[in-house]
Amino acid sequence: MHLQAVHHIAIICSDYEASKAFYTDLLGFTIIREVYREDRDSYKLDLALNGTYLIELFSFPEAPERASYPEARGLRHLAFEVENMEEVVAELHQSGIQVEDIRIDPYTSKRFTFFSDPDGLPLELYEI
């Protein structure tokens, strides 16, 4: 087996417009394609970061909430590389987003922190 790369991450949201604004207006993803699937009463939004397709954002009516934060089985969190931790954290704070204290990875000595999307999906910033 020769996997090449991660193609995309699928996220199900509860408030499509709020999540769309969060990922595009706040985090800076660009829209590749937006489709309303009438048979599912669902939107599918394909998003890119720096020209790379990365996230499929779905809305489904009455999707159940996440079981716990973040230790439920399955995807634990989604991490984004950043060059300047303070700058990105300051931008999130200016947008009213709560961010955990910056920590140091004991194995790599790199700095990281967590924040959440509108549905509480844990997102990580990892300084490169």
TrEMBL record:
Pfam family, one: Glyoxalase
Gene Ontology molecular function: metal ion binding
VOC domain: residues covered: 5-128
Superkingdom assignment: Bacteria
Keywords: Metal-binding
PANTHER family: FOSFOMYCIN RESISTANCE PROTEIN FOSX, LYASE, PUTATIVE-RELATED-RELATED
Protein name as it appears in the record: VOC domain-containing protein
Organism: Rossellomorea marisflavi
